[in-house]
Design a protein that fits this description.
Shape: globular
Structural class: mainly beta
Largest sheet: 11 strands, antiparallel
Radius of gyration: 17 Å
Helix content: under 10%
Number of strands: 13
Length: about 180
């Protein structure tokens, strides 16, 4: 599949996923009586670019990545909706391939932009990070031996970009955006 999916975030930022002959396989496991898919799984393989920019400017920055058996499953039969994500994403800015494994299904209400519960394990080699979704849309990122960073929303730009700084151990760490005092 080739094309672009774009979403405008609060504050006018846009986020896009540009597919470049990306292979996507869908499987619907539950249909409603009206034949509307209620539970399904999408499997992504191949190249794409995650972009971010200001709405209406036509300008964006992008991060090239490659999906390797990245599966996203969603069950909307009842509330809250349940989502799992498992597989691998490879990007230079990650320092190589990162494996995602859902530890606890992500729970999301019909009116929320962000999950209110759930946890995903991110692994790259021996390094591991946990993304925990919290009520109100907060995301806590805990990296092995490096403490926790809490972002106010799953839509925070820090989650959509490769914002890193090195620490003394040479490992890379996601940094929350700086705020003025």
């Amino acid at each position: 599949l080739t094309g672009t999916l774009t979403s405008e975030l609060a504050g006018g930022e846009t986020t896009s996923l540009m597919l470049d002959s990306t292979n996507i396989v869908g499987e619907v496991t539950t249909f409603s009586a009206e034949c509307f898919p209620l539970a399904y799984r999408l499997l992504f393989n191949g190249p794409a670019t995650m972009g971010q920019g200001a709405a209406g400017t036509g300008q964006s920055t992008g991060v090239g990545l490659t999906f390797h058996d990245l599966g996203i499953s969603q069950d909307t039969v009842g509330l809250p909706f349940r989502t799992t994500i498992d597989g691998e994403i490879d990007a230079d800015c990650f320092g190589g391939a990162v494996t995602l494994a859902t530890e606890q299904s992500l729970l999301q209400g019909i009116d929320g932009a962000c999950p209110s519960d759930g946890q995903v394990l991110l692994s790259r080699g021996a390094m591991q990070s946990h993304l925990a979704y919290r009520p109100g849309g907060e995301v806590a990122i805990e990296e092995d031996g490096m403490g926790e960073v809490v972002l106010p929303s799953c839509m925070d730009p820090a989650l959509l970009a490769c914002l890193h700084s090195s620490n003394r151990s040479g490992r890379q760490r996601v940094q929350p955006p700086r705020t003025a005092n």
